Please model this.
Amino acid sequence: MKQHTPKPTKAKEVSPARNLIKKSPFRTTGGAFIAGLTPYAAQWESYLERYAIPTFALCHDVQSILSQPFTEDYKDSLGKDRSYTPDFLIKTTQGRELVIEIKSLRFMFSDKALDIHIAIANHFLPKSQIFRFCVDKQIEDQPRFNSVKLLFRYVTSNISKSFADTISPLMSNEPIAISELTKLAKVGLGDIYALIAQKYLTIDWSEPLSKDAYVSLPNNPFKGLEIDDILSCGQFSNLLAELAMGIRPADKRLMASAQIGRRLDRSAGAFSVITGFPRTAPIRDLKPNEHPARSAWDRADQAPGRRPSKKTSN
Model:
């Protein structure tokens, strides 16, 4: 009797739980593959997720970035079955696994959103993975945000370790200006940016990045950017940490401030009067021909290059 030998099964390839690029052909989606950091292309479906990827990629303690890593079932505040797919799963060099949800701050603290976020957070509490929120205020924190956008261009540059080793002897125990280092090493500005992006050199992330900025070897004295630096920055970080623990924040005043959103970032202008417009009388009344046109027909002659026909009476 012929013995049946089972065929060996293929190992399942690592892939996202939801392939955004294939499932959302009419939405603005994209992906970024970074060798050694992303087992598959880290996909994004929003502006914030797009810039969260380079921010995480430049963190010295981030070991891998997985987008849309899995889908889990949970129960909402009413006990109904729901499903949830996190935006990212970040694995760190310390062995931590962080489940990251990317959100705009202004949509975090409405009553409906709070119920959803608390239910999801409570689902992850018994698990070994750490659940965290990351919002626009943290991703766009300046001057770090501009530095991230600049350095991410050099993350995949072809920089060998031997080249990095030739730079190290030129560094002292004190930080050195990038412009001075380029002269000593006889390299271009892009080469130094590539060394920073690939974590051979470090910068002071609280200062703008330019040729006049200072660099050092890692932890000598500048330490590399870490994931907790992102998640703990900003005045709303404590609110977000509470919410990620499944706790409804008690600071209603701060939550109300968070819901104002980007209006807090607007600079003063002609229409951003703090106390309202003055109620003084106008210098003179408008003449009849100075009143704004009320109907579309009357406004038509104001269009550039248009000479409308005259009205005809019936």
Q: What stands out?
A: The first helix runs from residue 20 to 23. Residues 156-223 form a domain with the Arc Repressor Mutant, subunit A fold (CATH 1.10.10).
